[in-house]
Amino acid sequence: MPEYTGLALVAVAGVVALEVGGLHTGLLQTRAYWISLAICYGFMIGVNGWLTKLTAPIVIYDRHAATGWRVPWDIPVEDYLFAFALLTLAMLCWDAAGRRERVRQ
């Protein structure tokens, strides 16, 4: 398995395991979370598509480090996985911190 792909899958699995195994925020089950993710992906597609377009790339990926699968505007599928992991981790941490703060009050 290409290393970029493997790391992306590990990142997704790690964030989901953190939620299921420790934080238990319930965030992944909320409509607001999925709407937020869709909004972030909307902006990501525009920017990432411009940066990674094969006709004039600004960011170039090693062919051997990724699957080579690209969807809308030549965006590597691994970028969607990393975006999921990073955005979800940030939201989970924010939600967990907010819950701890409410418990203290």
Number of strands: 2
Structural class given helices, strands, pairing? Answer: mainly alpha
Report on the biggest sheet. Answer: 2 strands, antiparallel
Overall shape: it is elongated
Mean pLDDT comes to 92
Strand content: under 5%
Task: Enumerate the spans where pLDDT stays under 50 for 5 or more consecutive residues.
Answer: none
Outline the structure in words.
The protein has 105 residues and is mainly alpha-helical. It has one domain. Helices cover 68% and strands 4% of the residues. It contains three helices and two strands. It has helices at 3-23, 31-52, 77-104; strands at residues 70-71, 75-76. Helix 1 (3-23) runs parallel beside helix 3 and helix 2 (31-52) runs antiparallel to helix 3 (77-104). The radius of gyration is 16 Å and the shape is elongated.
What tags apply to this protein structure?
105 residues, mainly alpha, two-stranded antiparallel sheet, 3 helices, 68% helix, 4% strand, elongated
